[in-house]
Amino acid sequence: MIPTLREAPADAEILSHKLLLRAGLIRKLAGGVYTFLPLGLRTLRKVEQIVREEMDRAGGVEVLMPALQPPEIWQQSGRYETASNVLFKLKDSGNREWLLSPTAEEVITTLAANEINSYRQLPKNFYQISVKFRDEIRPRFGLMRAKEFIMKDAYSFDPTDEGAMASYRKMYDAYTRIFIRCGLKAFPVEADTGVIGGNYSHEFMVPAETGENEVAFCEACGYAANLEKATSGVPKTAAREMGPVIEKFATPGVVTIEALSKAPYSVPANRQIKTLVFIADSKPVIILIRGDDQLNETKLMAKTGAVAVRPATPEEIVPLLGAKPGSLGAVVNVPANVQVLADERLQGANGMATGANEDGFHLRNVSLERDLKVTAWFDLRTVTAGEPCVKCGQPLKIRRAIEVGHVFKLGTKYSEKLNATFLDADGVRKPSVMGCYGIGITRTMQAIIEQCNDKDGIVWPLSVAPYQVCITPLAVAPESQAMQVAEKFYEELTAQGVEVILDDRDERPGVKFKDADLVGFPIRIALGEKSLAKGEVEIKPRDGAFQAVKIDEAVAAVLKRIRE
Fold first, then answer.
1. Both ends of the chain: CA-CA distance in Å?
2. Would you say the C-alpha torsion 525, 526, 529, 534 has a positive or negative sign?
3. Is the distance from CB of 468 to CB of 523 less than 8 angstroms?
4. pTM of the shown model
5. What is the pLDDT of residues 263-318, one digit of tens each?
């Protein structure tokens, strides 16, 4: 059952998604929901096995938790509200509500609360490989962003912060080995913890132009961070000689940074203060960043601790500040109960221009220290390519990437809320220090294809290929020499533990070769009348050239190549 396609369906947007479908690995049932066909399932199981072996090697203990979860534990953790946008909710015949698991922090912490009571039972690291569900509003890119997917999630419990960091390092190292074994060129980057929480995390990224994440990195020193977390060494805004007083000037119709930078006003973007109003957990907050910078909303959420942030609407802004967007500022008419958060790059700046909170007017000669009451200073801007690395000063680069794994140091957020405590050596009850660690199994499978392909199809690494060797006889009649030699090779290689598929279809040679290349079998053995007449067969690595080998040397040649 390998239903290859010459053309990909129209809704397949990226190369790896197209190849998954064309190579007959998966089929779409509905948006974000897929059936795995035999070859796709074989590769999926191989990725799972690599993950399982490395989790066991790192001290993990495998469990299997329910996909059906009661909402009460999510309410207890606080995530019933904060993660509500991704939760699948359903009701049983008794009208009781249930959730389909998007992850399992609440379940495993509940288990630990009931089963772990003493420091002598710690540390522990539980993991599972199971189906997860997330209510993606716009599922896309095949297995990359699906409503149903397979994930390995692990959770560590330690008595101390030092122990938690040791567990974190074990998982970090295990992830490094996993992706190497899968044939992926993945690299770790500093990352935001998001709704999962915690105070320390890394994502493992696979470079890909179709990736949904952007990563800032330094080739000189190795610094790398998700753009949602990245910082740079850009200098603060240069201070000018303090102007005598603030001057109000008319700017009719000027509502953008660019418009104010043009004649007759000619205020450069880097001398403007961009004033934004956001709603953070239902409360308004004023954000100040330099005119040529962009606000990073993820950083804003992290710094404010807000569960949700969104831009305020004009209908919310006008009653608050007295003006429409484009004329906003934080010098006058700022309510005392509204926080003003400013980007660190503006600290100490003067001689700036900003809105006057009056439509059609701006202010010049503004000093951040003299004229504004800033509640707090944070790094709120988005890094751009070419800025100096925060560690070594060399220019940063930015590239797109696919996230395949994420490790978090959670601290005691969940253990405190769900009562996962233990008695220490002195008999004092303390919360366990937790970590959590996820790998998208289905996403990793597609990331391998995204990275390992050519114009003819998939180029599977040997470790995760559905079959290692494809034997292709060009004549398939039972009495033909090609079929007899093919079956002999099949038996001998199988006896040596090699995973072999024999293409016994009565198809033209071109069809067989194209299909083998499309599916991506690492090694192909072709048996045709001309080569057999010379006592030879042709061996072709998927990413290499044909090699003519004597019939009685072919099996040994294949085994040698596999060992290498």
1. 31
2. negative
3. yes
4. 0.87
5. 999 999 999 999 999 999 889 999 999 999 999 998 998 888 887 889 999 999 99
